[in-house]
Amino acid sequence: MYSTRAQQRHHRSNPILCLAPNAAYQTTLLFDRISLGQVNRATKQTNSLGGKGQNFAIASLGYTGVSTRVTLLQILGGSTGTQIEALERQQGIDYITVHTSQQTRTCTTCLDTSTGSMTELVGVSEAIDPAAAAEFENTALEILQSSHPPQALALCGTFPPGLCPNAVARIVGATKSSKRTLVFVDAVKDIQPTLATGFVDILKINSSEVITLASAHCAEPVNVDLVQTAADLARRFSIGVVAVTDGPSTAYLVDTKSSTSYELRVPDLLKDLDYYLGKPADNCGKLVLNPLGAGDTCSAVMLNSILDDTTAVDAFALGLAAASASCLVLMPNCVFDHSAMQRILDRIAIVKL
Q1: Were both Cys, which of 165, 289, 338, 347 would link to 327 (CB 3.0–4.6 Å)?
Q2: 3-state percent helix, strand, coil for the chain, nearest multiple of 5
């Protein structure tokens, strides 16, 4: 866990380098009922890490049980940045911090017990300093071009203002020199320069995101066939695997190396809640599912499984099971029970298309 350039140069290379430039200090609030325009008092509150890369690190730690699997490369500033680092040290997350002068954003999630709904309030991401953007890029390049590069580079989430998309593309381009670093992307906004490098091995996004990406490169209306759309993206950008989630119950995977596509059907947790929880549900069988960070949990478990030589489709199924299991844990985000994950995995149907 380092915050200075001198120390970063001697930092060990963990199997996964996770680019996490847009962190957040996360507050999750539980309410019996939310009334707009009224004073609402929470019944429970947690403060935790936020941001897709930070969520990725939490889920990786929970899945593997070791802190030497992932190194976070993050940009933090202000008192919220200090609080984020304190939480990471407390949880045993390995990180390198590039400091910026502006305050790191906050995110607040409101869970309504009466409706089971989630409302997320995302704070402003301030522009990072030019020096911080350059340091972020240079630090990533040093690690990727070292004598012991990581097995995988994970790019998670959006870029804060001030971090140029072309800089991220240059980082991804550095993986070519070693030819040993797998590139995993869970991002959409401003990701076109990165995709255009042709070095993305795995793209994992949701259904609306895959259509957004396809629309940016197509003059005609995009085909709503998600599998075909994902396959077209894979061919256009030479992506080995495109994994697409489509709501809580369906997902698709296109594997261009084997010219194979799959549909994955995830069970409805609420239809057999006691079974998936492994115990009778509280509150007369009612449970607020918390999907916050579920997609990041899926990414973390999927990539870690692939590095353990699991096939892409089986790794995706395991990631989906972990993501679903994390929804059963009200707070904090990206925490899941391994037994629940296995029970869900046992009921995921994988259909070859």
Answers
A1: 289
A2: 40, 25, 40
Contacts by 175-178 with C-beta closer than 8 Å and gap 24+? 175/144, 175/149, 175/199, 177/144, 177/145, 178/144, 178/145, 178/149
Domain that holds residue 325: 5-352
| pLDDT tens digits, 261-290 | 999 999 999 888 888 888 876 654 456 788
Q: Report the Cα 206 to chain-centroid distance in Å.
A: 12
* pLDDT-derived band at 300, boundaries 50, 70, 90: very high
Residue 238 sits in a domain of what CATH number?
A: 3.40.1190.20
Cβ 163 vs Cβ 128: under 8 Å: yes
The answer to whether 159 and 193 are in contact (CB under 8 A) is: no
Sequence-distant (6+) residues with CB within 8 A of 261 are: 227, 230, 231, 252, 253, 254, 255, 352, 353
Domains contained in the chain, number: 1
List the structure tokens of 350.
């994988």
